[in-house]
């Protein structure tokens, strides 16, 4: 299921949701789909997400997430971003590349190096009456595949995105026009 709207059209705000399901097209992979509505302009939200260093404030603290790439990071197709974090106390290095950059509607980051065989995260922003939908579509396949997702990774990814939604609401609670 893809959540989409024509860029430039205004939709009615829709319910927030978060789901994880097996990928219908990639064996052993799963897909996360999440949507939240924020009373902010598409430009303001895209600008927030365009600063990779903001990722630290919307990531659970227990992951000890740190961006290693010095600021400012020029976001564009081909930009690489290096991180370090801890998952279940295991230190991990991660590198992402921006593979699609279409301001202010969407961008895609893909893991180049890290704990997944596949990690592709599409960030989309859709104008809605009174604000913007922030939509995340992530395809992920950990080393160990579906079994690891069932045992650990699925719960971990869900928890991270639930935290992210709450952190975005708290941090960006100021409505449009305020």
Brief descriptors of the model:
single chain, 178 residues, alpha+beta, Alpha-D-Glucose-1,6-Bisphosphate, Chain A, domain 4, eight-stranded antiparallel sheet, 8 strands, 20% helix, globular
The CATH superfamily is identified as START domain
Strands side by side in the biggest sheet = 1-2-8-7-6-5-4-3
Radius of gyration: 16 Å
Name of the CATH class: Alpha Beta
Q: Which residue ranges are poorly predicted, with pLDDT under 50 across at least 5 consecutive positions?
A: none
The residue fraction in helices comes out at: 10-25%
Could you state the order of secondary-structure elements as H and E? EEHEEEEEEH
Structural class: alpha+beta
> What's the total count of β strands?
8
CATH topology: Alpha-D-Glucose-1,6-Bisphosphate, Chain A, domain 4
- Give the averaged pLDDT, no decimals: 91
Number of domain modules: 1
Beta-strand residue percentage: 35-45%
Summarize the main sheet: 8 strands, antiparallel
CATH architecture: 2-Layer Sandwich
Q: Ends: how far apart?
A: 35 Å
Counting DSSP H or I runs of 4 or more residues, the number of helices is 2
